[in-house]
Design brief:
Layout (H helix, E strand, L loop, with lengths): L2 E4 L3 H11 L16 E4 L3 H11 L2 E3 L2 H7 L2 E4 L6 H8 L8 E4 L6 H7 L9 E5 L9 E7 L5 H12 L2 E5 L5 H28 L4 H22 L3 H8 L6 H10 L2 H18 L1
Parallel strand pairs: 1-2, 1-4, 2-3, 4-5, 5-6, 7-8
Antiparallel strand pairs: 6-7
This protein binds 1,4-dihydronicotinamide adenine dinucleotide and (2S)-3,4-dihydro-2H-pyrrole-2-carboxylic acid.
């Protein structure tokens, strides 16, 4: 199976890194190897960097990638889709499974850009995130009406090879893009701020990042493994008259939760405007 990537930027890099990470296997036990992958990017520097980083085939010709790919991942920014789809539409095989990871672009719009019918084109929208690079990704998967059950199973197998993959209806894709695609950026900001607080209290910075990142990762794992309400788990930490509740109050006084909700809302609004 040849998997092609149009675009070798941050997200494609994370996906490729996850697919090729030691021990990553698909549902059928097979492993994706560098020989299965080919990618194109705008610049020679990017192409060479990814060829060196992953040992994959690279080309400047998007049409070459489109022509050989059994699974074609469109990993350019949404604003470049019209240019790229116009360029490759004659080269993409009718039987190629096309996976778009672009935020905001609907199945109908992507099929139309290929001059194809959404109900017959083998097309799936995915919304991955950069923790895919360390097999801790969370990907929303939205099969188009022209995608077969085998297409969905293959797409899930690829996305599950580097983390969680969840099938959702298209009406939730903008929310998924925000809460999972974009949220790592918010979490990185939170980790950085927690570490700054520790540095302010005298902890060496590198150690502060390790403590903050491990505590955030552990807290997320506690939610995922127990299924308990985050508020319940928060209450578990807040000892009566203790230290944590003072921090909770400081966050509430500054609108921490409202800010997080508004961050998600801003991402959803932008996705709908794309
Ligand atoms: N960065 C992230 O965390 C996530 C990004 N995405 C989606 O992934 C897509 C790519 O985003 P990023 O990787 O962040 O962007 P990026 O800017 O890091 O990478 C874009 C890539 O596209 C290439 N490119 C641009 N025009 C091209 C063309 N005409 N032909 C071939 N290659 C071309 C660039 O050379 C670059 O390699 C976007 O649609 C974005 O919405 C989805 C989920 C998460
Ligand atoms: O910022 C963006 O547009 C992309 C989509 C989700 C994460 N990054």
């Amino acid at each position: 199976m040849k998997i092609g990537f149009i675009g070798l930027g941050n997200m494609a890099t994370a996906i490729i890194g996850g697919l090729l990470r030691e021990g990553t296997v698909l549902a059928d036990g097979t492993a994706v190897t560098a020989a299965d992958l080919i990618g194109s990017a705008k610049t020679e520097a990017t192409r060479q960097a990814k060829a060196t980083q992953f040992g994959i085939a690279v080309t400047a010709d998007n049409r070459e990638v489109a022509a050989v790919a059994d699974v074609l991942v469109l990993a350019v920014k949404p604003q470049f889709f019209p240019e790229v789809t116009t360029e490759i539409r004659g080269a993409v095989n009718e039987n190629t499974l096309v996976i778009s990871i672009a935020a905001g672009l609907t199945l109908e719009r992507i099929a139309a850009l290929f001059g194809r019918d959404e109900n017959t084109m083998r097309l799936i929208r995915c919304m991955p995130n950069t923790p895919a690079l360390v097999n801790a990704g969370c990907t929303a998967v939205c099969p188009g009406t022209g995608a077969t059950e085998d297409d969905e199973a293959l797409c899930l197998a690829l996305m599950e090879s580097f983390g969680h993959a969840i099938v959702i209806p298209e009406r939730l894709m903008d929310a998924a893009s925000a809460v999972a695609g974009s949220s790592p950026a918010f979490v990185f900001m939170f980790i950085e701020a927690l570490a700054d607080g520790a540095v302010e209290a005298g902890m060496p910075r590198a150690q502060a990042y390790e403590f903050a990142a491990a505590a955030v990762a552990g807290s997320a794992q506690l939610v995922l493994e127990t299924g308990r309400h985050p508020g319940d788990l928060k209450d578990m930490v807040c000892s009566p008259g203790g230290t944590t509740i003072e921090g909770v109050k400081a966050l509430e006084q500054r609108g921490f939760r409202a800010a997080a909700m508004e961050a998600v809302g801003a991402c959803v609004a932008k996705a709908k405007a794309l």
